[in-house]
Task: inverse folding
């Protein structure tokens, strides 16, 4: 039950203060033994809890999906396997799995999307991380434009889509190798840029460390950097920025 529903029922006299207190106390988290579900996260942050699927036991994962679905009517999970998809789908046939981004979700139909975020990649190999970012933002109500394979080895490809990128409320730049894409975009737009280094690259790429260091040391302004391959973190942050822009806070 949402906090507003509880308060309204107290005001109407259909719920006692003691009963309301019990419901609000339950809202902080739900104890499951192996997990403490943060059932009050949406009220605090505007985002419901997301499930990191990798490494979870089958019984734990399924129970967590069941409880979150009961609470929220939808569930968003990252880094899931095909086997986990089959497990959850057997319980919830409406479950959708994307093997590229490894997102496993049960989503409400007809959700509106507002604003605009551009998700860009340097190369095609960066798309799995970019899709994690894009689909995270979309799940939380953001309209996303995808601009893929526009890396610096063929800068004309980026310039041909510059109009799309420049009108976005914020830009997510996903790149491996040397990670230069974020710096280039940062010098071309007036909006914040979220740089996502990926582990794509040859040996000296050091599994994404070289791209991470390039992005951290960028001379372009307005760039924030998330961890290597952290598409989810970028999509979440982009949604926060997009919401602020749409509310007139940017």
Result:
């Amino acid at each position: 039950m949402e906090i507003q529903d509880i308060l309204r029922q107290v005001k109407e006299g259909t719920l006692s203060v003691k009963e309301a207190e019990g419901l609000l106390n339950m809202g902080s988290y739900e104890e499951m033994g192996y997990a403490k579900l943060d059932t009050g996260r949406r009220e605090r942050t505007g985002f419901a809890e997301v499930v990191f699927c990798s490494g979870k036991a089958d019984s734990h994962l399924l129970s967590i999906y069941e409880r979150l679905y009961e609470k929220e009517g939808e569930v968003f999970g990252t880094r899931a396997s095909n086997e986990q998809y089959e497990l959850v789908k057997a319980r919830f046939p409406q479950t959708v799995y994307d093997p590229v981004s490894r997102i496993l979700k049960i989503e409400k139909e007809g959700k509106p999307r507002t604003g605009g975020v551009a998700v860009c990649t340097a190369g095609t190999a960066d798309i799995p991380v970019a899709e994690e970012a894009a689909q995270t933002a979309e799940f939380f109500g953001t309209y996303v434009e995808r601009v893929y394979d526009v890396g610096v080895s063929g800068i004309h490809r980026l310039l041909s889509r510059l109009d799309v990128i420049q009108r976005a409320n914020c830009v997510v730049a996903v790149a491996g190798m040397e990670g230069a894409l974020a710096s280039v975009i940062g010098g071309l737009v007036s909006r914040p840029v979220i740089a996502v280094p990926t582990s794509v690259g040859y040996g000296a790429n050091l599994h994404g460390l070289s791209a991470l260091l390039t992005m951290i040391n960028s001379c372009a302004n307005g760039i924030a950097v998330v961890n290597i391959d952290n598409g989810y973190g970028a999509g979440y942050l982009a949604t926060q920025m997009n919401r602020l822009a749409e509310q007139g806070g940017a």
About this structure: The chain is about 40% helix and 20% strand.
